[in-house]
Amino acid sequence: MARRLSNSIGIDDAPFDRRHRGDVAIVGVVFTRTRLDGVMTGKLRRDGANATHAIAELVERSPFAAHAQVLLLGGITFAGFNVADIHALRERLSTPVLVLARRRPRLAVIREALLDKVPGGARKWALIEKAGPMEACAGLFVQRAGLELDQAAQVIRELTIHGKLPEPVRIAHLIAGGYAEGVSRGRA
């Protein structure tokens, strides 16, 4: 039997107006199994290059960092096209990283947008490619660093109560929406 990864941190970004430039809020939530134990907030730059650093600092400055056994991300891009390097996060935090998506991303569309319209797009596209393919896993699509596919499926199954997303990402999404807009909305 594989070791249970019961202490988790879920990270998601807040919604923002497409005309917005500057910083966008990110929310981290800490769970022990399916119990919410903490909430953290931070910022990263819209379409910037600091997602990896901002996420790592959010986790490192929290009192929960030493207990985190898995980091769950609500996507690999934050605040538009601020791409997280999941392998660098894995290395820096010594914690497995799991990127979650409900649908398989349209990578050709993302690649074209990054290379044609986003400053530093080639570097950002390289980070997405470095993360590896999006794999079907327990009803979602995942990218992973430091986890086998069967471990990722176990994490998803054990942490999912409502809907398809594990609670840490679902709750981070809801809190981020409420924080930015005064009320959460949309699927979580």
3D structure, described in words:
- Helices cover 35% and strands 27% of the residues.
- The protein has 188 residues and is an alpha+beta fold.
- It is globular and about 45 Å long.
Topology:
Layout: E1 7-13, E2 23-32, E3 35-45, H1 51-60, E4 70-73, E5 77-78, E6 82-83, H2 86-93, E7 97-101, H3 107-117, H4 121-130, E8 135-137, E9 140-145, H5 149-159, H6 167-181
Helix pairs in contact: 1-2, 3-4
Q: In the CATH classification, which architecture applies?
A: 2-Layer Sandwich
**How does the major sheet shape up?**
7 strands, mixed
| End-to-end distance | 30 Å
Q: How many helices does DSSP assign?
A: 6
Rg, nearest Å: 15 Å
The dominant shape is globular
The secondary-structure class comes to alpha+beta
Q: Please provide the ordered H/E string of secondary-structure elements.
A: EEEHEEEHEHHEEHH
Overall tally of structural domains: 1
CATH class: Alpha Beta
Main sheet strand line-up: 3-2-1-4-7-9-8
Share of β-strand residues: 25-35%
What would the average pLDDT be, to the nearest integer? Answer: 94
InterPro entries: Endo_dU (IPR002802)
Labels describing this entry:
188 residues, alpha+beta, archaeoglobus fulgidus dsm 4304 fold, 7-stranded mixed beta sheet, two-stranded antiparallel ribbon, globular, Endo_dU
